[in-house]
Amino acid sequence: MHQATTTTGGHVLSTQGRFAQRLTQGHLIRRLTQLYTGLALYGVSSALLVEAGLGLEPWNVLHQGLAELTGLTIGVVSIIVGAAVLLLWIPLRQRPGLGTVSNVFVVGIAMDGALALLPEAHGLAVRIPLLLAGVVLNGAATGLYIAARFGPGPRDGLMTGLHRRTGRSIRLMRTAIEIAVVVTGFALGGTVGVGTLLYALSIGPLAQLFLRLFAVPTASDGSTVVATGQPRGAILRP
């Protein structure tokens, strides 16, 4: 009788273990799906903003300016700049995650792919909807990517690394970096306009909304984890 009870108890524990393993695997698959879907959609959203021609997000102003200077595609420039920024993590003692490394390549590839497929936009009746769609999609992509919790983008890591090394506020570091890249990109021929301003004003609230919408339950207790604090502190940089 005691042996039967022991056998039954062991079977229950084994079943629970298999269930926990499947739950963990499912949790990881969902996070990976969110990561790469978010990165790909971020590239598509950036392509929409490029096609709209009404102003880009700060880093893509720089990417577009460098693309004009070098003759490379904006996606390739994004990859090169992302890799260069990632190298700056070394003296800042930042540790990249899977999402950080994937960010460098997937966003640029998706951007160039989308630009190759999108028809040329003519007239404000087409360009304005493209701008609005690009900003909203960018917010959704940001929520997907960050909620997956695989590490920050290389440019966000630069911002937080400088914050830790200098003792200056994240807001100051972010503002200084973005002013520098926008001014440099604009001088090189990047597009600055109403879209740049709209992006700056709306991406924070949009990112926070989608972060909560796409929050991934933890594998242990089913609770969700979302970004806290100021929305703009969680913005993805391509």
From TrEMBL:
Keywords associated with the record: Membrane, Transmembrane, Transmembrane helix
Taxonomy, superkingdom: Bacteria
Transmembrane segments: 32-50, 70-90, 97-118, 130-151, 172-201
Database matches in Pfam families: DUF6198
Name this polypeptide is given: YitT family protein
